[in-house]
Amino acid sequence: MASGVSAERSFPTRSEGVSDEVSPLAFQESIKNDKADKAYKRDAFLSPRAGDRSHDLSNDDQERQSTDVDNVDKAKHGIQISEHSLSSCQSFLALKHFSFELAVGNLSGADPQGHATSATSRSNIESCICRFTLASRLAMPTDRDHRYDAVPPIPTYEEAIADAHDPSPHETESQSLLTSRNHGAPSSSRRPNGYRPPTVESDDEDGLFESDDDGGHETAYVRREMQELDIGEPDHGSRTSLWGKRIPFSLSLPRWKWSWRWRLPRLRPTIVLPSGPPTTTTTTTTPSSTQGNESSTENNTSRRWRFPWPRFQGASRKQVILLLVRIFAVFVILSFLYLVFVSDVFSRMARRMGTGFRFDPEDVRSWVQGHVDPASMATTVKHFTSYAHLAGTEGDYSLASDMEHMLTRTGLDTVHVDEYYVYLNYPKKDGRAVQILDKDGKASWTAKLEEHARAEQVAGRQTYAFHGHSKAGDVKGPLVYANYGSRQDFQELKERGIKTEGAIALVRHYGSQTDPALKVRAAELAGFAGCLIYSDPLDEGSDLDDVAPDGRYMPKDGVQRNSVSLTNWVLGDVLTPGWESKDGLPRMKVDQSPGLNHIPSLPLSWGDAQVLLKHLKGHGKKVPDAWKGGVPDVSEWWTGDAGSSSSPVVRLKNEQDEVEKQPIWNVYGKIEGVEQTEKSVIVGNQRDAWGFGATDPHSGTAVMLEVARILGILLGKGWRPLRSIEFMSWDGGAYNLVGSTEFVEANLDALRRNAYAYVNLEAAVAGTHFHAAGSPVFRQTLHRVLDRVHDPVRNESLRHLWEERRGQVETPAAAGDFAAFQDMAGTSSIDLSFRGPPRYPGHSNYDTYDWAKRVGDPSFVYHGLMAEVVALLVLELADRPILPFDLVGYADRLDGWVEDLVAWAKGKVKATAEDAGGEEKFALDQLSIAVHEIKSAAKTYSTWEHAWDSMVISSGGWESASLNSQRLNYNDRMALFETALLDLEKDGGIPNRTQFKHVVFGPREWAGYNTTFPAIRDAIEGGDWDLANKIVLKTASLLRDAARVLIDTEDI
Questions:
Q1: Percentage of the chain with pLDDT > 90?
Q2: How far separated are the first and last CA of the chain, in Å rounded?
Q3: What is the DSSP annotation of 941-975?
Q4: Which runs of E-coded beta strand occur in 646-768?
Q5: Less Cβ crowding at N or C end of the chain, within 10 Å?
Q6: CATH number of the domain within which 903 lies
Q7: In a domain, 907, yes or no
Q8: Cβ atoms of 416 and 727 closer than 8 Å
Q9: What is the pTM of this model?
């Protein structure tokens, strides 16, 4: 069959029983309760029905059919009165035809006994359903008196197939379909007596709708039939649909309480019944059945798919429209609230457009200064110094989590943690020793090494005395004193005939060689087997008898820890020079790193050094007066001599744990700018410490968090800067500036493109005198800031006090976390601090919160002043429309530095050249010419700011779109000037130390931190005049390129 239902499928006979699920009248309950849907189904019979049906019928069947046809004719004629509802009945007819087709398809087969299927039962079913549905749809109240005995009553579906006599073979299967649950017992009927089953005759298209009665009589007849159906209809609600058992979805209509309901559209098939009986294969064939099969072949079942849409009429349509309008209004309101309060779309749009809420800058500055809280900073210092926290340790991780939480609590836009994997070393409890050995090789004296235990820690233990990145080893040799441990000092020993091969060097901090790592390297190159570095009272100021914990100076047992990795040669992780230390990236072998020394070293207190110096008396030669230190009770200062068998022999033991991939954690927080979100001003501070670190680094930590707290409050009030502000807490700073360097290496291109400035805070409050070191572009801005900050102790502005000491922005050193920003990324950087004439017990376990609140800064007054300075400086850099860089001042400083270089170079040439020809081979004229070009370009460039002021003022404070674009371009060029001073060619930078790209700033190979033109100076120092000339020419070319950045004003 075309419908897909097998023609050979047969149902069980009455004697075989019927499943409990069979319920052919289950759909009547839903029809009864759905009054609104009756009109929808009523006109279904107006569509074309099945075609001719020619069957061999029994006499009884024909009689029943003739009676039924008469009734159907009258009903159809009555239907014509309601022709206006024809168009609303098509979908329901599809459901009925679908059910009929399934029933007819199954009834057309052969039963298990081989009897022919009765077409009569099928016709009875169709006729009954047609008459029942028609009557139920057209039933209307009437005042006319009807007689029920004039016309046979319309039976229910169950009565239509119930028969009092024994079923004939042709009726067996049709009766079995309608068997009740109690094994074939007939269902009860309202009128069991006088019932005549309906009969079906062949369709007569010409006479089907003809009637001799008048229209009113036939209409009343149909209404009477419907009233009869509405009286005492049996409850069949407990019976399920026959079709639900055979088909995976039910055709029963839902019980709607309303004229419509929300529903998703479904694809439902519409089945058109064939005009003839379906083709069947039976064992008994009659001429009539053969004719029916031929007719069935010509009329195949067709199927088409429709989307059912709800139909609304009258008041229901208005209610639906009103409801839809209300739903749409609610949706619009909720969308608006989401956009305003959740999505932040308007503020982001304002940022892109360069507009938004703008606060009066002067009001913001005054508000910031008035909300600095020294007590809050004291609490921060106390928290961060409550336990030791070397980089990568449990204490360090705990403080990283605290930092993340604190920055988040301030209300910054984003806060996250960045992890790197770096090489670190840690001391073992009994792995370090310094001993004087007797002739038998046994220890006659052992250094204490450790400091007195401090009571401030709340967890763990205080840090052991050791050197970061030191070489592990256990060596012994004669002790030799070498002053400050510079190359010149070791050269003097050699000239005086002091043997140093295999000896243990004893040197003191500071002096002509300030970098501890270079002291160890110089000792290594001089042939020493190990190196000891102590803090001398003369350099510390301890001879004033004002020592910690009650004074500012290093006590007798105070030990100054340091990293001895070669910061001047390799910056950051010593195993990944030039690239970030992320997991999975390549790394060098420890013994191949150029940033590590190859002899063991340890720090000592001057109390332990005192014993060693006393044992040197009478060995070697007496030292010059300039070599004498301030250690008390040392009556004579001798050098010692490795060539003398009588010199004291010292053992240096340094066993340690070394981790090549130790995790460290940087923490970042960001305030997004309203105009230039991608451009940023960065404030950074080291978090890890050698001890408790109250001064270094956590005075800077407290200042940074206080600035973040204040700006976070401003954010809550609706303020935003024009450019982004970032706060960064570096890990591993004590070990060769690891955290900041790895960040720069991982974000090098972005920093060169978008980082406007970097402000560094390390030992931010170690005294009372203000200091600043960095790029000259900050000079004017710093002057404005210092004018606003008043020192309450001296009752003067910080600028007045600073200039009184002839203070200026010093040359940036390579000893702070700003080194990577300045020398590698070309980001203009500045380091800010308060320092005192005396030193402080830095890098020791005496640098505690207790010391800070009693001696360092008792009322945290200078912590508050530094917070004001940093906050105001950040506001100047991030919230001024014109970036406040002093390029004219930069050009002036460049001119002065070139003059200093020329004077220094002349002295070196005369000292190293064998004849006057050496001086002629080298010249610095190209540098001077290039600097003059920069001065001219900077002066011309700076005039545009005044022109911008005039244009904005003349337009009533309004900045046009084109003027805004020019201003942003102007700012970018100012920031790009510093970046243009980088040597970015392949293998560019300082020769053999290519991490350092800046041609003006950077560390020299040996001569400390604060230098200018380091590559030129190193080449001259080494006597390589050809290399010196090449570097001069390249430097001059880069200076001219930087000038062209300012001269090219096509967009301004």
A1: 58
A2: 84
A3: HHHHHHHHHHHHHHTTT---HHHHHHHHHHHHHHH
A4: 649-671, 676-686, 723-730, 755-766
A5: C
A6: 1.20.930.40
A7: yes
A8: no
A9: 0.69
Q: Which domain covers residue 326, as residue numbers? A: 319-353
Instruction: Tell me the Ramachandran region of residue 491: left when phi exceeds 0, alpha when psi lies from -120 to 50, beta otherwise.
Output: alpha
Helix (H) or strand (E) holding 508: strand 504-508
Query: Which class for 522: exposed (0-12), middle (13-18), buried (19 or more C-beta within 10 A)?
Result: buried
Give the 3-state secondary structure of 524-536.
HHCCCCEEEEECC
Contact yes or no for 706/783 (Cβ under 8 A): no
766-790 pLDDT per residue, tens: 999 999 999 999 999 999 999 999 9
DSSP state of 638: B
Alpha-carbon distance of 64 to 940, in angstroms, equals 115
Cα 480 to Cα 255, 634, 784: the distances in Å are 106, 15, 52
Q: And the tokens for 64?
A: 């029943």
Considering the domain architecture, whether residues 395 and 428 belong to the same structural domain is answered as: no
| Residues 830 and 875 both lie in one domain | yes
My answer on whether 681 and 822 are in the same domain is: yes
The structure tokens 């039933």 sit at 139
pLDDT tens-digit readout, 163-214: 444 444 444 444 443 444 444 443 343 444 444 444 444 444 444 334 444 4
Domain total of the chain: 4
The count of other CB atoms within 10 Å of the CB of residue 645 is: 9
- Residues 865 and 919 grouped into a single domain: no
288-318: pLDDT as tens digits:
444 444 444 444 444 455 555 566 566 677 8
Spatial distance between the Cα atoms of 593 and 595, rounded to a whole number of angstroms:
5
What pLDDT band is residue 542 in, cutting at 50, 70 and 90?
Answer: low
Residue 914: which residues within 8 A CB-CB, separation 6 or more?
none
CATH code of the domain covering residue 780? 3.40.630.10
Do 862 and 845 lie in one domain? The reply is yes
pLDDT at 346: 58
Q: Single out the residue in 852, 882, 912 at which a domain terminates.
A: 882
